[in-house]
Design brief:
By secondary structure, the chain is mainly alpha-helical. The chain has helices at residues 37-40, 42-69, 74-93, 134-138, 140-149, 161-177, 182-202, and strands at residues 13-15, 19-23, 116-120, 222-224. It has one domain (29-219). It is globular. Keywords: Membrane, Transmembrane, Transmembrane helix.
Amino acid sequence: MTEHTSQASPPPVRPVHPVQVSAVPEPGLSRWLWLVKWLLALPHYVVLVLLWTACVVVGVVAFFAVLFTGRYPRPLFDFTTGVLRWSWRVGYYAYGALGTDRYPPFTLADVPDYPARLDVAYPKHLSRGLVLVKWWLLALPHYLVLGLLCGGPRPAWIPGGLLSLLVLFAGAALLFTGVYPRGIFDLVIGLNRWAVRVVAYAALLTDVYPPFRLDQGAAEPRTHAASPG
């Protein structure tokens, strides 16, 4: 008679935050290409100005939708998330990180094989009361901190503050050594991740308050989900 031993399967892991920002470090970056990325990325900048202008209109519509129904209309949610995603790809390519030489695609959709990815978990319900205060009052402490670290809460394609200085150091390291220092890379991604979380919160995409911490590194931190019962 054969004995069967049962082995408990490990608990599943889940992201620690509904806003997921990830990046794959790319080896063999060009020493000099970062010097002209402001020009190469110019078509994206033009499109993103238009997209973020549209996001303002979408945000007003979503505000009243959440206020009266507690739900962010899914097509509007997908559009705003897509603009964040596009912005992150351009920021990662250009002066938000200088993390890749692969030119960003012109799309709001997720591109699984692109080295910079972003996603926001769609909330089944949003607080009708929080929508009145979270984008200006509750997020204010983050605005003050990010004003120093990143030049304010901003789309990833608009650098600023300490983040810009770190990216400049990374560019200089690439120019003279051909290597992107991993410590700077991890910090740059952490700063961008913090800023994107705050922008998503202020854009009403989530009720989960952004943590005051730097989740550094290429991948989002994860935790074990609580066991049922």
